Amino acid sequence: MDPRAIAAAYTAGWNTGRPEAVAAFFTEDGVIIINGGPPWTGRAGVAEMAAGFFADVPDLSLACDGVRASGRHVVYLWTFTGTHAATGNRLEVVGWEEWDLDDAGLVRLSRGWFDAEDYARQTTAG
Q1: Which of 10, 37, 66, 103 lies 20 to 30 A from 113 at CA?
Q2: Dihedral angle, C-alpha 36, 93, 60, 27, nearest 10 °
Q3: Rounded to an integer, what distance in angstroms lies between the CA atom of residue 58 and that of residue 47?
Q4: How far apart are CA 45 and CA 7, in angstroms?
Q5: Contact 85, 62 (CB under 8 A)
Q6: What is the largest CA-CA distance in the chain?
Q7: Could you report how far apart the first and last alpha carbons of the chain are, in Å?
Q8: 8-62 tens-digit pLDDT
Q9: CATH of the domain at 74
């Protein structure tokens, strides 16, 4: 299990624009929690979360900014850019995910973080 290879593939999955490509990196019962909010559970939940981002930012482009790992615990640093669908505003959002991986290198739990106030500021019309 190579955390950098997993991160590169995960980035490529997001850049397909397909929610199921993102969900494929999670275990069947995997969970993602964003900014301490409610969990998105299972691959269907993860796909729903990704679909929401793709609806808001149809041209979303994700870049991996770094990877830190200790055993099966990985920190994935990222930046996404794109255009907000409702306002036409250009976005640049930075954040990270903390992953707990299973033996096969799939994500069991992801805790994701980004500056929600900055995102709201960037997506506000005008």
Answers
A1: 103
A2: -30
A3: 15
A4: 20
A5: no
A6: 47
A7: 46
A8: 999 999 999 999 999 999 999 999 999 999 999 999 999 999 999 999 999 999 9
A9: 3.10.450.50
* Amino acid identity at 43: R
Q: Does the global pTM surpass 0.85?
A: yes
pLDDT in tens, 57-80: 999 999 999 999 999 999 999 999
Question: Is-contact 63 80, C-beta < 8 A?
Answer: yes
DSSP string, the chain: --HHHHHHHHHHHHTTT-HHHHHTTEEEEEEEEETT-PEEEHHHHHHHHHHHHHHH-TT-EEEEEEEEEETTEEEEEEEEEEE-TTT--EEEEEEEEEEEE-TTS-EEEEEEEE-HHHHHHHHS--
Structural domain including 65 reads 3-123
pLDDT, residue 64, reads 98
Residue whose token pair is 């995102």? 119
Q: How far is CA 40 from CA 20, 54, 103, 122, in A?
A: 14, 16, 21, 24
Q: In b/e form, how buried is each residue of 39-50, taking b as 16+ CB within 10 angstroms? A: ebbbbebbbebb
